[in-house]
Amino acid sequence: MTAPLTPPDRRSRSENLRLAREKGRHTDLEWLVMKHLFKVCVKCRDPGWNIEKDHIRPICIGGSDSVDNLQPLCARCNTSKTLDCTDYRDAALPNWRAEFNRRIAIVLE
Ligand SMILES: [Zn+2]
Fold it and tell me: What is the Å distance from ligand 1's center to 24 Cα?
């Protein structure tokens, strides 16, 4: 593992994203399938016209950019989350992962 060039609190968003992508990165397809699967903000269940991609473990504290670290949040929940690392996906949709994998497999067939 290489040491970061800059202390975590001094890194830019693009530097954080670069480091997050080294740990894993999602595809556009994975994000689209996830958004369609949940249909709502997984925290407040607001139906989503303003759903945003939330990194469950924020990339500024070492979270990856893989789908395992993504959840759909509305803009309001995403803005107010700060450094909270709560994963709301299982509570919003139990066994979401199996359905997610099934849909990805269908699309990639
Ligand atoms: Zn919300």
Answer: 25
Residue 23 CA from chain centroid, whole number: 13
Query: Distance from the CA of 29 to the center of ligand 1, in angstroms?
Result: 22
Quote the CA–CA distance of 20 and 80 in Å, as a whole number: 21
Q: Closest Cα partner for 107 from 17, 14, 20, 28?
A: 28
100, 32, 45: which is closest to 74 by C-alpha? Answer: 45
> Domains in the chain, start-ordered, CATH in brackets?
26-108 (1.10.30)
**CA angle (8 as vertex; 72, 18 as ends), nearest 5:** 55
Radius of gyration of the chain (CA): 15
In angstroms, what is the span from residue 3 Cα to ligand 1's centroid? 35
Q: pLDDT tens for residues 38-92?
A: 999 999 999 867 999 999 999 999 999 999 999 999 999 999 988 899 999 999 9
